[in-house]
Design a protein that fits this description.
By secondary structure, this protein is mostly helical. It is built from seven helices and no strands. The longest helix has about 120 residues.
């Protein structure tokens, strides 16, 4: 997409979009529109927050399972920062390509999005080189997304219904997979994509209270872990200090003993030399006699 599409346009738009996102994420999240009847709050803030909350039970437990043994820094980097950056690149590439086709090539992609958004991706790909191959790849990626999402959801539900066992039986995962697929199919057939989105948002409301409690518990647990880490570090520093003092005292004591022994040996040698000196005159007198 980046190579075959309008590369320069995508690169310029990436910088502008990333800067705009960083500058507006907090104001747009807190926007309440009290002076107008705008649908902004319901269509954006609440919708996206509720959408993320509806996915949190499945994705959260799944990520926690595969992130076992990682540090908080590694978790933040691998789960929050890098995926967010990849997401920005992904949506910028596809969105910029669609805008370029609409503005510069007048392909009518905007009307396609308004009338049938499900086909907008393939209509956009049809305006690029090797459209047949890229459409097949896009279809495969969409399938992989649904399969991995359903697999993680069925795994987490299997763990929940297996008394917390980390390896639920295949039959349990299969049953949950069938139930998930059946529920999604019914919602799509009766209400389309909008019905599925409404169900996801509705399920997010009760879980939001649980999520708030979980966030508070997580902060408390991390605070306890931090205190435990600091206590262990203090104990380690104390033990190291004891060892250093002991080693230094031993070295000083060893040096003092060495000096004392050296002085004693020196005194003994001087005493022996004096005795020999005293004996030598007597021997000389005897020889003279």
């Amino acid at each position: 997409m980046i190579i075959a599409g309008p590369t320069i346009f995508i690169a310029n738009n990436f910088v502008e979009v990333l800067g705009g996102y960083i500058a507006n994420i907090i104001p747009m999240s807190l926007q309440m529109t009290p002076y107008s009847d705008s649908d902004w709050l319901g269509n954006n803030t609440i919708f996206f927050w509720a959408w993320h909350m509806s996915w949190a039970p499945f994705i959260g437990l799944f990520i926690a399972r595969i992130s076992r043994g990682r540090t908080v820094r590694e978790f933040m980097m691998g789960v929050l920062l890098l995926p967010s950056l990849v997401g920005v690149i992904w949506f910028t590439a596809f969105g910029s390509t669609g805008l370029f086709q609409e503005i510069e090539q007048n392909t009518g992609i905007a009307s396609v999005v308004a009338e049938n958004p499900e086909n907008a991706l393939f209509d956009m790909l049809s305006g690029l080189p090797i459209a047949f191959i890229t459409s097949i790849l896009a279809f495969i990626l969409i399938g992989i997304f649904f399969i991995t999402s359903a697999d993680s959801a069925s795994y987490v539900l299997g763990v929940m219904t297996s008394q917390g066992g980390l390896k639920p039986m295949l039959s349990i995962k299969f049953i949950w997979g069938v139930l998930i697929a059946g529920t999604a199919s019914v919602l799509l057939l009766t209400g389309g994509l909008e019905g599925l989105q409404t169900a996801a948002i509705a399920s997010a409301l009760p879980f939001s209270f649980i999520m708030i409690a979980m966030i508070i518990c997580m902060l408390i647990m991390m605070g306890r872990d931090l205190k435990e880490i600091r206590r262990n570090e203090q104990i380690a520093r104390t033990e190291q200090l004891k060892e250093d003092i002991k080693e230094e005292f031993y070295d000083d004591w060893k040096q003092e003993v060495y000096e004392e022994i050296k002085e004693e040996i020196k005194e003994d040698m001087e005493e022996t030399k004096r005795e020999e000196t005293n004996e030598n005159p007597q021997d000389s007198e005897k020889k003279n006699d």
